[in-house]
Write a structure and sequence with these properties.
Elements lengths: L23 E2 L5 E5 L14 H17 L3 E12 L9 E10 L3 E9 L5 E14 L9
Antiparallel strand pairs: 1-2, 2-4, 3-6, 4-5, 5-6
Length: 140
């Protein structure tokens, strides 16, 4: 039912208009990536569109699950926009597992600037779909 065809808007390397995000685990078991928002994704002038911010936060949580060996689907997400995110300036996106249940996980994610200020954050519930098969890499 769910498989990766490299066309995911957030992480698919074969999506010509996608974000092409690449997450890895840090030493604390969190998913992390950096992202330079292009001006084409602005809402207000030179400010990243809220929909793209939500996508970054959602994807960080999804990858926190994936990098721990589980495929999940977003059941709910609550986003808090703290400060405008400028386009053209690199940000760090992080996702972390807060709680693991047999059928759902609770995760959190946040976006910080170069000074470590939290610009946006989210908490989400993800339905556990399956363990990820080791022989089928996801978005590599």
């Amino acid at each position: 039912m769910f498989y990766m065809d490299q066309k995911c808007f957030a992480c698919g390397k074969e999506n010509p208009i996608g974000l092409k995000l690449r997450f890895e685990l840090d030493e604390e078991g969190r998913s992390i990536t950096t992202y330079m928002p292009p001006h084409e994704f602005q809402g207000f002038s030179k400010i990243l569109h809220g929909g793209i911010i939500c996508t970054l936060l959602d994807e960080a949580m999804a990858w926190a699950m994936l990098l721990h060996g589980y495929l999940g689907a977003t059941a709910s997400i609550k986003v808090r926009f703290r400060k405008p995110i400028p386009t053209g300036q690199e940000v760090k996106v992080t996702g972390e597992v807060l709680d693991k249940g047999p059928r759902s996980w609770t995760l959190a994610s946040y976006i910080v600037n170069e000074h470590g200020q939290v610009l946006a954050e989210a908490e989400g519930a993800f339905a556990v779909l399956s363990e990820t098969p080791p022989e089928k890499p996801v978005c590599e």
